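Lecture 7, part B: from sequences to assemblies.

Below are the input chains for today's worked example.
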Amino acid sequence: MKFSHKAYLKPLAHATKYPTGPVNGVFLAETNSTNLVVDAVPLFHFWGTLTPMLEVAMTQIDLHCKANGLRIIGYYEASERLEDVALSLVGQKIASQIHHVNPEAFAVVIKNQKINSDDVAFMPYQFKEGQWRVSKDAFSDKNADFSFENSSSPTVVAKALRGGLWEKLADFDNHLENIKEDWLTNKAVV
Amino acid sequence: MVNAAKVLQDLRASAERKPDVVVRLGKPLIDSGAVLKLDTDAWLVYEQVAIAALDIGDDGLSLKCIYALETKFPGSARVRRLKGMQLEAIGKLAEAGEVYKAILEEDETNVLASKRQVMLLRAMGLPSEAISALVKYLDVNYTDFEGWLQLADLYLDELMYAQAAFCMEEVLMLQPQNHIFHLKYAEILYTQDNFQLALKQFCRVVELCRDHVRGLYGIKMCASRLLKAARSKDEAATSQEDLEAMDLLATERLIALYGAPGAAAESSKVAATKWIETQ
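Predicted structure of the full complex, as structure tokens:
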């Protein structure tokens, strides 16, 4: 999987905006491409273990995808605890549902400690042998499974976040409080 | 000219967590000494800035505030709990625990120390212990709705929905007019597949807060599930006609809200409208 700039920026902006709680969202790819992750849609920053709005969001993202030649290709989350990089139980459930429809689907846990650095802040997981397992050495020469479309993404994104770009990010929780919030495309951030 | 003191006061009243704002406004007041002109409020500001400084990692500022408070109120349990929080912030969890334990040994009813102890256990990655400690606290302080809310969250972290629902019931007995609490209860019930009761709670949300979008979505989700399911033999269950009427009402309101000019971004409007049509 190659991550576009947008697909790296939005999850980190989401985590930066809500440092005191967990956040999650999904990744999108074009319908006909196999491995370019073009975008990310942020979902929630509270009540992440509750289902009704998750169902509404996933259906609306599906409709958005169909209207724009996209499909859901993965899931991301960030833990509220700084050092935690394990894929949460809820995360495993959501990622598994995505994987059920799309066997190439993957999950990413954000490495909170790496957000304000030039290092890669994504910890990817793949579904192998019935379990979600960390993809070792991702984003390095040893593991071609995960990479960046543009190798400067980590540096550029870290700088943008320091400049306060994260304030403009809107997730589905924000949208439900104020439907003006552009959660599906987040044009103000890109 | 922003009246820093007023903004800080408003934030204390609303209990919003905006540490960057608090530090940005409070630090100059404290550094210049102007804070002392606020008389009794000065000490509330010191406490507020101390906590905000911990949130954004400005240990120096936090210690400065705590020192000022210690000087003014020597031996105060309230100040000592701040010291405990500072120790937590720099990762000295065991020492923080000792501070809270000492306060509780002097006064086992000290609410602030009890609460910090619960959250310390959670920070240490001991959720069951945190839950036990909070349950013990609530046995005595059963009218503390914030405590019940926190317990609900601890249960939700462990996916213990039934227990979380029970906690929300306690919260609602104490705070029946708060639509957000009804909303949380409704979503927990939905997650437990209790669509009948969830629907009633979502309706209450919209009753208390007109055109609440999240509540309206909830009504549609429940109504749609109930209409698709087998007809319930329960006499108390909502009738098909009522379900359809509620669904229609929620649909109309959502269409009106999204349809208003400039109400939503194009992509959101398209997706939402299609969702409403196909639900």
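Note for the exam: Chain B has a mean pLDDT of 93. Keep this in mind when comparing with the next example.
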